[in-house]
């Protein structure tokens, strides 16, 4: 037999405590995650003539509108170095956050058939849903760097190497929120509407459409916004890739110890997401 | 021999809410009543052990907990109490084609479904040609699944499913799908699994499959394990129980049909009709090998009736009639003695039901000796089912013999 032996005890208290040959199981789970993500990615673009172009077009459209309104009409970006690219990077980051969490929220509820008929760790569905958006996001991000850098629109340096770390933080945040939302959405379909409203608030609370320097005269509000992990991530990535307006590797160090807040909040969301998801998992198959 | 599966005092209860609250508004507005539900015991203290390499069948009526048990074994459900031990890799699917997406091509679906089964991309790369060939879909691989006929989808799903490398296979009514030819393929695969020494748990209504392939069978009834033994014992018990259940549903096992199906002068009347198994119990479900005794109670309502003829007419429910028409003349014992109020019972014993399994009807007819006057004709006096070990087409097993000669 080529396959690895594994054994498990299924009890109520322990959940499923398996003592498998870890590598083999992990590889199978990773494989399932990848297959799900790839097929969702394909599904998203099959049947549409422009296909992947839509994924570029949507953030570009949003960018165009916001650019005209905030930069040209309200001149919010005035006095901010390279606001155009700041806006573009922020929109790409935000689009990923929005798409990934929305898709992931549905991932459990819309796969009832698989959950009722086959066993695999349910989190795979959530991860796969976020991966689909992640693929789009990474392609968009790469395009920005590849196009804007030769044009001299980006300001890259050693600190740019920190960008992947911030993207990692962003993905952790997305995953934590996705686990939480997807589990709750199975039982409360209101979560769909609640999360939509949250997003509308968050897009302002994350300083997507304006530079944070706009709030220099309102230190309290600035700190409040920067406690939001999305605002911190956007600001840090802008700093790493577009506008090195501070001399430190990360932008928000101006806040001093308060920089801990968004990081801690991310950690808490990941933890809460994991706990809630784990608690509710046994009930998915029965409820769906 | 080690146990592949151990199930110790496993119970699973479902709380069926009287109203399901899927919105928060409901939760907030019905704070008090949120605890209204009734408990449904899907599994009640079920214990058993399956040794490695055993082919075990689980039977039971709808809602008996068979599927719940399978879901607990496959970890889809977590038991409320008790413990399930699994020793070996379990195939994680209960049905064919889990994860199939109609918008993807067959090839893409093979990789997706294969991943659900625990196969890696590389393993599938090696096997994909074999899978496609087995499914006989070489010319359609790059078409979307939605353009497939349901038969093609099932073939594809089955071809992928048998690639699972698990030592323990859990299957829920896999046989319920597909045409005759496909089912034969399923059976071949079961034989293959058996030879390979895999542990198989098969949940099915197909008793002949249980008798043919299983080493052992379990029967569940309302969540309880009520029988555990050889397939023949358990399927026999199941048939009796099903018979008892359908008798309960259909009202009395005895008695005669309503007025619509009955006519005649009633000078002699059928009072009661019973079908009995050899244990003396009344039944409406028999196996083909089982002797069946028909009892007819009659009563004379006239002073003038001398002799009479009593006939049993067997029909098939689809209208084929008569299949058999045995009759007897009650004359020797009766001559000159028939009087109003005289009653008796006639018995007719069938050693072996000669027709194939299916649903049948029996009519009881009472005439005068020349078949001139109908005293009482009860057209659908009793319906019964005969369960044959194999499902076959036609009316009877011909019992012929095939011979073939090759040219040259």
What does this structure look like?
The complex is a heterodimer of chains A (288) and B (408). Helices cover 67% and strands 3% of the residues of chain A. With 288 residues, chain A is mainly α. Chain A has one domain (30-287). Chain A has a two-stranded antiparallel sheet with strand order 1-2. In chain B, the strands form 4 sheets. In chain B, strands 9, 11, 13, 14, 16 and 17 form a 6-stranded mixed sheet that branches. In chain B, strands 5-6-3-7-8 form a 5-stranded mixed sheet, with helices on both faces. Chain B has 8 helices and 17 strands. Chain B has 2 domains: 3-244, 3-Layer(aba) Sandwich (Rossmann fold); 264-387, Coagulation Factor XIII, Chain A, domain 1 (Distorted Sandwich), CATH 2.70.50.60. At the A-B interface, strand 1, helix 1, helix 4 and helix 10 of A face helix 1, strand 4 and helix 3 of B. Strand 1 (7-11) of chain A pairs antiparallel with strand 4 (81-87) of chain B.
Count of DSSP strands of chain A: 2
Q: How is the biggest beta sheet of chain B arranged? A: 6 strands, mixed
Low-confidence stretches of chain A: 1-5, 13-20
Q: What structural class is derived from the secondary structure elements of chain A?
A: mainly alpha
Mind telling me the C-alpha Rg of chain B?
Answer: 28 Å
Cα(first) to Cα(last) distance of chain B is: 53 Å
Radius of gyration of chain A: 21 Å
Proportion of beta-strand residues of chain B: 25-35%
Which strand-content bin applies to the residues of chain A?
under 5%
CATH top-level class of the largest domain in chain B? Alpha Beta
Q: What is the number of domains of chain A?
A: 1
Please state the overall shape of chain B, judged from the principal axes of the Cα atoms. elongated
Tell me the CATH topology of the largest domain in chain B.
Answer: Rossmann fold
Task: Identify the biggest protein-protein contact and residues per side.
Answer: A-B, 41 and 47 residues
Tell me the structural class of chain B. Answer: alpha+beta
Provide the helix percentage of chain B. 10-25%
């Amino acid at each position: 037999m080529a396959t690895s032996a594994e054994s498990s005890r299924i009890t109520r208290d322990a959940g499923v405590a398996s003592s498998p040959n870890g590598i083999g199981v992990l590889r199978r789970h990773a494989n399932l995650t990848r297959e799900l993500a790839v097929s969702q990615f394909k599904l998203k673009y099959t049947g549409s003539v422009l296909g992947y172009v839509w994924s570029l077009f949507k953030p570009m459209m949003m960018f165009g509108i916001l650019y005209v309104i905030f930069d040209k009409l309200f001149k919010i970006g005035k006095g901010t170095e390279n606001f155009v690219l700041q806006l573009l990077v922020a929109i790409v980051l935000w689009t990923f956050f929005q798409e990934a969490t929305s898709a992931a929220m549905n991932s459990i509820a819309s796969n009832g058939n698989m959950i009722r008929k086959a066993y695999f760790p349910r989190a795979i569905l959530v991860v796969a849903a976020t991966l689909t958006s992640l693929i789009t996001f990474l392609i968009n991000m790469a395009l920005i760097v590849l196009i804007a850098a030769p044009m001299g629109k980006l300001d890259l340096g050693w600190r740019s190497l920190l960008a992947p770390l911030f993207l990692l933080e962003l993905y952790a945040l997305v995953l934590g929120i996705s686990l939480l939302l997807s589990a709750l959405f199975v039982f409360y379909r209101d979560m769909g509407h609640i999360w939509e409203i949250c997003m509308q608030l968050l897009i302002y609370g994350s300083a997507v459409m304006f530079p944070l320097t706009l709030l220099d005269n309102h230190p309290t509000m600035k700190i409040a916004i920067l406690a939001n992990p999305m605002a911190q991530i956007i600001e840090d990535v802008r700093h790493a890739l577009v506008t090195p307006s501070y001399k430190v590797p990360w932008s928000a160090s101006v806040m001093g110890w308060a920089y801990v807040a968004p990081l801690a909040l991310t950690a808490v969301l990941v933890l809460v997401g994991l706990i809630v998801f784990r608690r509710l998992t046994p009930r998915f198959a029965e409820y769906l | 021999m080690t146990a592949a599966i151990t199930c110790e005092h496993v119970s699973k209860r479902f709380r069926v809410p009287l109203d399901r609250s899927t919105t928060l508004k409901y939760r907030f507005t019905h704070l008090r009543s949120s605890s209204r539900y009734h408990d449904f015991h899907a599994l009640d203290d079920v214990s058993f052990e399956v040794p490695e390499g055993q082919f075990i069948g689980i039977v039971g009526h709808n809602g008996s907990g068979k599927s719940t048990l399978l879901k607990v074994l496959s970890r889809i459900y977590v038991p409320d109490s008790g413990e399930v031990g699994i020793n070996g890799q379990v195939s994680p699917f209960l049905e064919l084609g889990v994860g199939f997406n109609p918008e993807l091509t067959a090839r893409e679906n093979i990789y997706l479904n294969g991943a659900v089964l625990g196969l890696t991309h590389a393993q599938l790369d090696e096997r994909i040609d074999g899978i496609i060939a087995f499914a006989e879909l070489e010319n359609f691989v790059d078409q979307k699944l939605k353009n497939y006929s349901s038969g093609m989808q099932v073939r594809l799903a089955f071809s992928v499913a048998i690639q699972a490398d698990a030592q323990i296979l859990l299957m829920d009514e896999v046989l319920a799908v597909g045409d005759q030819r496909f089912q034969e393929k399923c059976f071949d695969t079961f034989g293959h699994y058996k030879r390979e020494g895999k542990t198989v748990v098969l949940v099915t209504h197909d008793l002949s499959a249980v008798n043919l392939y299983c080493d052992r069978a379990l029967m569940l009834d309302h969540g309880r394990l009520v029988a555990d033994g050889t397939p023949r014992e358990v399927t026999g018990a199941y048939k009796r129980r099903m018979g008892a259940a359908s008798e309960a549903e259909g009202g009395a096992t005895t008695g005669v049909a309503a007025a619509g199906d009955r006519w005649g002068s009633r000078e002699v009347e059928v009072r009661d009709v019973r079908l009995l198994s050899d244990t003396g119990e009344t039944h409406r479900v028999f196996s083909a090998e089982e002797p069946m005794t028909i009892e007819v109670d009659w009563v004379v309502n006239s002073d003038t009736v001398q002799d009479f003829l009593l006939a049993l007419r067997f029909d098939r429910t689809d209208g084929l009639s008569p299949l058999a028409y045995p009759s007897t003349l009650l004359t020797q014992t009766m001559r000159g003695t028939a009087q109003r109020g005289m009653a008796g019972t006639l018995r007719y014993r069938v050693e072996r039901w000669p027709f194939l399994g299916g649903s049948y009807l029996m009519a009881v007819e009472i005439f005068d000796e020349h078949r001139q006057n109908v005293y009482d004709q009860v057209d659908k006096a009793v319906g019964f089912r005969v369960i044959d070990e194999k499902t076959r087409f036609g009316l009877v097993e011909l019992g012929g013999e095939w011979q073939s000669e090759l040219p040259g």
